[in-house]
User: What shape does this take?
Amino acid sequence: MSSADFEPDTWVSDGFRDGGGGGSGVGTLRLRATCDHEAVHAAAAVMLGWQPARAAIHSVDRGYCDTVRVAHWDSPRGWYEDLIFTIAPSILCGDRSGGDADKAVKLARKIAGHGLGGWAMATDRDVQRVYDRAIRAVHEIESTPKFRILRRAIRASLEEFGLLDEVDLGRLVLFVERRHGTDVYRAELP
Assistant: This one.
């Protein structure tokens, strides 16, 4: 695993500072939840047919997952896939992120208003329908063995290394695909 700009002492010390020295404290549990949050993002990206570029953990409460932009990024289909990617951790781990929540609201409104004259024309009911569809898509993704195994593998790797680059993520995906097939779930607008 590459670690050019990764400082393990930072997240390890943060993780154990809150009583996690033996691997059972609050800090360790919070760190594991953060790793799981980013693992859900990365695994959802793979299931949508995207290419995760990097996942990193900065502290017990901070991490991120970047993806390579797909060709249809700025279209209703791209917005819908982005919504699924964005809300997946809050739906599957109950782990909320202010940045994800803000982005999800904007995406759902943008999707709901498409074809109606813009986001301002979308009613709350329209927006809720978009959310409901996206939530069903997240659960559909979650039900696949490939997603569950990817999520576990990425979470464990983030817990151990704190950083996964495109090559690392590609190796994990290839390993899972060799064992569980290459079927890819792609979210489609109904």
